[in-house]
Structure formats: structure tokens, C-alpha cells
Sequence to fold (414 residues):
Amino acid sequence: MRKIKMLLGVCTLSASLFVSCSKENPYEEELNPQYAVTEIDTVEQSELIERLRATLPENAEEKLRDFSGQFRFIDGQFTNQVKAAIDGDQYECSTDDLPLTEYTGYLTEGWSLFEALVYTFYGDIPTYYALFLDEDVNKRAYFGPNGEYTNQVQRTFKDLSRFWDINAGDMELTGMHFDTYLDLEKSAKTLQLLYGGTIEENMETAEFLKEITEEYETLNRENGAIFTFNAFAFKGQEVSPLGFIPDKIVMGDGIMQGMDAIGFGDVAAQAILAHEFGHQIQYDNGYFVDVDPEDEPEATRRTELMADAYAAYYLTHKRGATMNWKRVKKFMEVFYNIGDCGFTSSGHHGTPNQRMAAAKWAYELAQRAHKKGHILSSQEFYELFEEKLPELVAPDAEENLAISTENRFTEAEK
Ligand SMILES: [Zn+2]
Fold:
């Protein structure tokens, strides 16, 4: 069995069943997947792939691309390949040893081409169901496969809406669940949205997906966490043929389970939600700027580090989540773990070091406001961040100007 890398979202089904992908691709780094996919080596696998192929509509890849290309949501996985804009050599960066990377590696352990194809063509069903079809939002929403994060997430959402000065009244909050595959109606409705046809016409595929997600441990491992391993912020817009979809934050069970598994369960849900809320502030106040494709990695890094900083400020502030130093250290580790080295990717969120530095800066800012209990307006905070940004992203490869992994806490602990 020869190991090959699975490349998300860009794999195509060729006539001979094999996946053809380009080797140099940013998606690989973006989700830190480290997927090692084996070639077909059993009769069972090739039969499964045959069945899977039979469910795919004509031009499935095109349809998927057209659908996802209609809108943009922050932190999502569908982004365009762009040219290099940041010199990766200038930064100390590796995600290989991050506990979260190990966790996603475990989620996809033993995957064959079959699982990779399910993921590529049907892996976004929970995402799109949550974003566009799920009516169980806000107080009706639940978080975690068994609702284990519901209180934490609901409470934090309410608190964030009070803490920041944007109008969050029309914003919706919803959960993303692997269970979507187990409900034929939900699954068929989402398939209809992605690939067209009627609900009835999509029922057979929905049944196939239910069968395989129930049956295969490689797909339902840890409650199918790999399929909900994301959280994102959506800006309200028209989506054909559904009509207007309001501002929304979607929290996937998988990312919260993953953080829990590596020991950050008590802070991660709050930290991730506060980060996504930061993106909603950016939408409302117009902090996203349109840039040329080659400048996109840098632009994304800016808005991502800013969202980390908004989150850290809220999490630390006396009138926010008031986390003590022990928990602050943990949430900084959360951001560190979701850093990436995809310097050429339009989805580049900043390196682990940079994300940690942005969070630490905002933590210190909130500490200084501690006595007075004053909360900066979102605009005041933004201006301070913009001033600080060049320092946060300064090259750190040789000189170790930014915080290195060894001494990243020492300064704040003084
Ligand atoms: Zn983000």
C-alpha cells in the first residue's frame, strides 16, 4: 500500500476511479489534515467506490464549485488557490507537532480512497445544512453531539452581544452536527441545494450516506468529528434559491470535541465563538478590504489575527469572560493550535506564534483596563490593533523577535 496525500476540495474523479490532484496545494495546510490515504486494496473498497460514483450527479465537481462560489464565509474551507505573498522562510513555523494536528490525523487514520471521496463530495452536508437550512437557531440550537457545550456556547453568545458595541440583534447562532447524515430528510434537502433535483430524487443518495456513515468506523469515529471540524462566521446575504440568509455563526461539534480531547475543553468553545464574533464585528464595521488575489494571504492573516485579538480582549476583560491567568494561558494555546503555515493560501490565518502574539497583546490591553473596567469600543480596539499589527507579524525565524514557543509565557508571567 502506497501512501498518498489527500487534497481537499480539489480532487476530481477521473474515469479510472483514481483521484487526480495537483501536488502543490494550499488546502493541505489549511486544515492541517495530514491525511494519508491508501489506494484501493480490497474488493469491498472498490465496490463501495462504484456505489459512490453511481450516486454522483453529472458534473458533480462543477456543481459543488458553483454552489460554494456564490458566497463567501470566513474560516470556511473553500478558498481559491493564490500565488505566494508572504515569504515562509522568514517565519518559524511548523504545525506537525501540534496536538490538534495529531487529533485530525487520528480522525482520518486508515482512510482509503473511498472515505476521501465521501469527504470531497458529501463532506459539506453538515456545513450547508447548518448554514442554510437548519431552523433550530439561537435558543433552539444545541452544541456538541449530546449537547455537552450548549450552556457554554449559549451563555458566551449572549455575553459577547452585550460586551461589544455592534448590533448583534439579527445575528443567528447555530450548531453543526454529524447527525445530519442520519436524518434522511435533512440530508436529501441539503443534497438538493448542492446538486439540484428534487428531494425524492436525492433520497437514494441520502440513504446511501446514512448507511455508510452508520456502518464505517472510519467515517463515524468520535461522532464523525472530521465532518464538523470547523466554525465560521457568515455575513448576511441573498443565497439563491433560498432568499436572504442573516448574519450567522456556525459552531461545529468536531472542532469543540477536538479541543476537548487535547485538554482545552473548558476554554475552547468560548475562545472559538469569541473569534467568530470578532469576524462579525469586522463585517459590521467594514474592516474587510477587497484586495488582489496575490495579496489575499496577507489580508486574511490581518483579519484573522484581529479576530484572535478581539477574542482575547473579551475573554480576559473584567466585564467580559474574566478568565484568570491559568485559563488565559489555555486559550492562548487554543489559538496557537489553530495557527497554520499556509503562507501562500488565501486562507492563511497566521502562524501559531503570530496567533499567540495577537492574543497575548489583547490580553495585556484588557489587563491594563482592569482597574477602571472600561471597555474599548470595537472601533477604538481596531485602531490600536492596526497600529500593533506590523510588530505582531514581524519575521521571527532567526532573530526570535516575536514570542518563541519556549518562552512565550515568561514575559506575561512577570
Ligand atoms: Zn477566523
